[in-house]
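#struct-pred
JK: can someone run the complex with beta-nicotinamide ribose monophosphate? inputs below
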Amino acid sequence: MASSQALRSRYATLLKQFTTSAKEFEVFTTVPADSAPPTGILYVLDSSFNPPTRAHLRIASTALLEQPEPRSRLLLLLATQNADKPSKPASFEDRLAMMELFAHDLRSHLAAGNPSEPASPMEHIPTIDIAVTKKPYFIDKAASIAASHHYPSPLEQVHLTGYDTLIRIFNPKYYPPEHTLQPLSALFSQHRLRVTLRPSDEWGNKEEQEEFLASLARGDLEHQGGRREWAQRIQLVEGRKPADPPVSSTKAREAAESAPQDLQWLVPDTVRQFVLSERPYSTESPGTRV
Ligand SMILES: Nc1ncnc2c1ncn2[C@@H]1O[C@H](COP(=O)(O)OP(=O)(O)OP(=O)(O)O)[C@@H](O)[C@H]1O
Ligand SMILES: NC(=O)c1ccc[n+]([C@@H]2O[C@H](COP(=O)(O)O)[C@@H](O)[C@H]2O)c1
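RT: done, C-alpha cells with the ligand placed:
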C-alpha cells in the first residue's frame, strides 16, 4: 500500500478537482481496484470519518455479515459539508487516507470472520468504495449516488446510520420551505436505513430508542408527513454491549492528544498507526486546518 504521505497527496489532488467541479458525488478509490460492478445491495456508511472508529467498523461489518454476498458493495462516503458541524481538523485528505486504511482493516476483519470458522478467501469479501459528496442531507446523498451512474441502476441503497442520525433525518427543520417530512418519500420509496442503537443520556436508552420506530409505525408522525409504512424500511440493530465503553470520533480525537493508549480500543489498528505517526489532530501538525 502507498505511504501515508503518498495517500495524502493523491487525495489532496482529487479533492481539489472535485471541489471545483460541478459534481455532487465522486468515487475516488475502489478496494480492490479491479472489482466487477455490484449486483447486490449498496451499503452506504456516510460519516465525517474524523477519524474512522471501531464503532464504524462494527456498523459496517455487522451489516455485511448479516447477509453475506460478495456482489454487494460498501460505500464509505465522506461528507465534505455537514448538516450541523463546522469544518475542523483533521483535513479532508487525512480523513480520506484514514478511510482507505480503514477499508483494508475492515476487509481483513471480514475475512477473519468468526474465530471458530475457517477464514474466507479475500475474493469472497465485498468490495469497498471510498467517495465524497457535497450533500449534507440523506435524501440528496441518495439521489446524487444514483444520478452519478457510477453503479448499475436500479440498485437498492441501505444507509448505515446510528440512532442519533435517524432522529436528525426525521427532524423537519432540515426540510425547508414547508418543514414537513414529505421529502423523505424519495428516500424510503427506493432505499432503506439500517440503524444502530446508540444508548446515551442525550439520546435515551434502548427502549426509548425502539419506541421511536414503534411510534412511526403507529402513524404518530403522520401530522408532520411521516408515513407509517416507512417503519418497514428501517431496521434497528443492537450496538455495543452495555458493559462496553461508548466509542465515538470525538473520544478518539481527544485520546490522540491526551491518552494515546485508548486509541487501541477506539480505532482500528492501521488508523491508530496513522494517527500516532501523522498526528492529524495536533495543533502543531503542518496538515492541520483551524
Ligand atoms: N458508537 C456508535 N453507535 C452507533 N452509531 C454510531 C456510533 N458512532 C458513530 N455512529 C454513527 O455512524 C455515523 C457516522 O458517525 P460520525 O462520523 O458522526 O461519528 P461520531 O462518532 O458520532 O462523530 P463525532 O464524535 O465527531 O460527532 C452516524 O450515523 C452515527 O450515528
Ligand atoms: N436530515 C438529514 O439528512 C441530516 C441531518 C443531520 C445530519 N445529517 C448528516 O449525517 C451525517 C453524520 O452527521 P454527524 O457527523 O453530525 O453525526 C453527516 O453527513 C450529516 O450531514 C443529515
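RT: quick notes.
Residues 4-246 form a domain with the Rossmann fold fold (CATH 3.40.50.620).
Residues 47-48, 50, 53, 55-56, 59, 161-162, 164-165, 196, 198, 239, 246-250 surround adenosine-5'-triphosphate (ligand 1) (CB under 6 Å).
JK: thanks, will look after standup
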